Amino acid sequence: MSLDALTRVYIHEILRRAGVPDADIKIVVGFLKTGHHAGKLHAVLLVDDGEQAAVLDNRFKVQPAESLAGMKQVYCVNRVMRGTTA
Fold it and tell me: Does domain 3-77 fall into CATH 3.10.620.30?
């Protein structure tokens, strides 16, 4: 497992222990659309409580969910659902 993947797992666990329900935390995997990393596979955490959504990405600080527009999503998974393709 890569360091990036371990970091996502760690942050996911911190969010859970802080009381964020599993259903509100998703790992989104997709291909980046822009920049010098365009076409590269990337994963982020999406935290959505129904009122507000945020993307936790190791490339940036916390971003609004709209930042997912820069990624062609191919898969989404959390502890509640097994996974879906986008």
Answer: yes
Residue 22 vs residues 29, 31, 32, 50, 75: alpha-carbon distances, Å: 17, 24, 25, 13, 17
**Cβ distance 68 to 55 under 8 Å?**
yes
Q: Where are the domains of the chain?
A: 3-77
Place of tokens 């590269």: 40
Per-residue pLDDT tens over the stretch 14-65: 888 888 888 898 889 999 998 888 999 988 889 987 788 899 887 777 888 8
Q: What pairs with residue 29 in β-bridges?
A: 43, 75
**Measured CA angle at 62 (ends 51, 59), to 5 deg:** 145
Give the other-Cβ count within 10 Å of 63's Cβ.
Answer: 16
> Which tokens in the block code for residue 64?
């609004």
pTM: 0.76
